[in-house]
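Me: I'm a chemist; would you kindly supply a protein sequence with its structure tokens?

Assistant:
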Amino acid sequence: MAYKGRLAASTYAALERLQDRGVRIVPVTAAPVGWCDQMARMWPIDGVIAENGGLFFKRNAIDHGVDRMLWDGSTTVSKLRVRLLEVAEHVQQLVPEATLADHQPFRLTSLAFHHRNAAVDQRIVSVLKDVGAGTSVNKPLGPRLVRRIRQTLNVAPSSK
């Protein structure tokens, strides 16, 4: 939807037209929670999946606020943040070139590192996998996540 980090007015208007016609819209992004909270509150959408699926912001039709949900119900944000900081420190000890992305302070469920080069990136991914962390590079939604979105929004499965 965005191009070079910006959302065109025509795109925003198209989102409004779609929502006015009853089309449910849920952007999926690797963007941090801080940005996604603003999207969920201000854009004409039904919710946002943030941080590559770490959280879901569902638009609340009653008071126009947002309900924030962790996909992983087995932990709390505070426990998760402590663990993420431990993992980040471990990665940086083993890969000294690894630096956290500028927007890391605005993340709750994921780590983001600056892209350096393919060799450094691969070393970071390897260390993350060694400690049991999942890794992702913005990729299409899987069928499991699509089902979860539909259930959360109370949308029937498509006939396709």
Summary: The CA atoms of residues 87 and 129 lie 11 Å apart. The mean pLDDT is 83. Strands lie at 47-50, 55-59, 66-70. The longest strand covers residues 55-59.
